[in-house]
Amino acid sequence: MTINWFPGHMAKTRKEIKENLKLVDVVIEMRDARIIRSSKNPDIEDICGSKPRMILLNKSDLAEENITKLWMEYLSKDSISVLSVNCNTDRGLKNIKTEVNKLLKEKHSRMKKKGISKIIDRAMVVGIPNVGKSSLINKLAKGRIAKIGDKPGVTKSKQWIKTKLGIELMDTPGILWPKLESEETRLNLAFTGAIKDEIMDIEELTLNLVEFLCRYYPDRLKARYKLDRLSEMPLENVENIARKRGAIVSGGRVDYNRVSVLILDEFRGGKLGPISLERP
């Protein structure tokens, strides 16, 4: 599948994120819990360097919990905390402060020895499009959306947002882009809507999704669309789903665009249950 993905401002944004790192104590990296590998920017380690980092696996309700736990164990390191969250329901968000305190334990200890009791931690939220950065900031800043004025020692053009967790967030989320180095990455990003449907062949995309579901979640597919059996041919399964859902045009022909939109929307909305597209 050919997907065009060439944001011209990639290099500029990457440079800005690196420059802003010196203003924050911790980086909050967001990924999609369904596609934890594909929703990562491969350069994130290079960009963040030794800066403490927290990885939030968002949309966790749409992924299999046991697989998400395996990912959390796989990704956790001394300078990296991993949390499973859902920014729409607030699930897991209250644990962010605890994990930030663990990551910044040495900093807090140094400041307390200097007699500083009121410690303000600052964070930058980064991630690829569609992983929920804005949702996270809006949830954490609820009721505190007013920005904080310029502070001594902080670049004057930078503004900060107070949150209910006592953490100040940089006002603009850092937008990173995935590198479409493999077919799997391209498909997974497209399945979850991180790449706009308008620039793709959604009928071909749906065939790939149905093929994946037949392989790993056949019972879910049969149950959702009341299919008696699954064919070895993805196209035949799509056509059977179209007939079950009435995606038919005159002459009894399958409306491939309509059934493709239906299947993609139901997958993205969690109607087929929690599904993890990647395993560690």
Report on this model:
- Residues 15-178 form the CP-type G domain.
- The model is unreliable at 148-156 (pLDDT under 50).
- The chain is an alpha/beta fold and 280 residues long.
- It contains 11 helices and 10 strands.
- The protein has 2 domains: 10-175, 3-Layer(aba) Sandwich (Rossmann fold), CATH 3.40.50; 201-268, Conserved Hypothetical Protein Ylqf, Chain: A, domain 2 (Orthogonal Bundle), CATH 1.10.1580.
- The longest helix is centred in the last third of the chain and has 15 residues, at 202-216.
- The protein has helices at 10-20, 44-48, 65-75, 96-103, 105-113, 133-140, 183-191, 202-216, 218-225, 234-245, 256-268, and strands at 26-32, 53-58, 80-84, 121-127, 147-148, 160-162, 167-170, 174-175, 248-249, 253-254.
- The strands form 2 sheets. Strands 1, 2, 3, 4, 5, 6, 7 and 8 form an 8-stranded mixed sheet that branches. Strands 9-10 form a two-stranded antiparallel sheet.
Mind sketching the topology for me?
Layout: H1 10-20, E1 26-32, H2 44-48, E2 53-58, H3 65-75, E3 80-84, H4 96-103, H5 105-113, E4 121-127, H6 133-140, E5 147-148, E6 160-162, E7 167-170, E8 174-175, H7 183-191, H8 202-216, H9 218-225, H10 234-245, E9 248-249, E10 253-254, H11 256-268
Parallel strand pairs: 1-2, 1-4, 2-3, 4-7, 4-8
Antiparallel strand pairs: 5-6, 6-7, 9-10
Helix pairs in contact: 8-9, 8-10, 8-11, 10-11
